[in-house]
Write a structure and sequence with these properties.
Pfam family, one: TetR_N
Radius of gyration: 19 Å
Protein name: TetR/AcrR family transcriptional regulator
Number of helices: 9
Number of domains: 1
Largest sheet: none
Helix content: over 70%
InterPro entries: Homeodomain-like_sf, HTH_TetR, Tet_transcr_reg_TetR-rel_C_sf, TetR_C
CATH architecture: Orthogonal Bundle
Keywords: DNA-binding, Transcription, Transcription regulation
CATH superfamily: Tetracycline Repressor, domain 2
Organism: Amycolatopsis ultiminotia
Order of helices and strands: HHHHHHHHH
Length: 199
């Protein structure tokens, strides 16, 4: 249509996602989103909705993108549970190490911002955190752990995974983050009765 500004939706959503990821929901204004996406305020509202609607789209985009990577990492859990959990953590460590991406995790930031989020956005943030525990629990059960043990390790591993994002924002080095992961993997290896960290 003549006079209507055209834009690539994927590019705009990625730019908005990075803005929310870098600054957080509360500290991101519509003007910030306008600068990040190159769209004026009216275009944002007419094409993408209000700030909450756009944030939900970005959170969904983030959760889908990294959720798929986590699922792929855990896909070998039935045969090699320890290697699968190692690969799960590698998704996070690789994301943190990527110089093109902000530190931290959009899901973790969203969970910490729940007190200032609308009920719909808060519920989606809680759901995204819960998905990590759910996928880990299913993988660990497939790998041979009993229900209660799988649940305990899933909760612990999900908490460690979120803490890596927080620690990265406080300046923890890649070596320090890997050391945190190794503690969890050592405990899991013992629980799985894997001698010499056999995977």
């Amino acid at each position: 249509m003549a006079g209507k500004k055209q834009f690539d939706l994927d590019t705009v959503l990625d730019a908005a996602m990075i803005q929310f990821w870098r600054a957080g929901y509360a500290e991101t204004s519509v003007d910030d989103l306008s600068r990040a996406t190159g769209l004026n305020r009216s275009s944002i509202y007419s094409s993408l909705g209000d700030k909450d609607a756009l944030f939900l789209r970005c959170l969904e985009r983030y959760a889908t993108r990294y959720g798929g990577k986590y699922d792929a990492a855990l896909s070998s859990a039935a045969d090699r549970p320890l290697a699968a959990v190692r690969a799960f953590f590698a998704v996070t460590l690789d994301r943190i190490a990527d110089p093109e991406l902000p530190d931290g995790c959009l899901v973790a930031q969203s969970a910490m911002a729940i007190p200032v989020l609308s009920s719909a956005v808060a519920a989606r943030a809680q759901e995204a955190v819960g998905f990590q525990r759910t996928r880990l629990r299913a993988a660990l059960k497939a790998g041979g752990l009993r229900d209660e043990t799988a649940e305990a390790f899933a909760m612990h591993s999900a908490a460690v995974n979120q803490s890596l994002a927080v620690m990265s924002r406080t300046g923890a080095s890649a070596e320090q983050l890997r050391a945190v992961v190794e503690v969890t993997l050592d405990a899991l290896a013992r629980t799985l009765n894997l001698g010499n960290r056999g995977e």
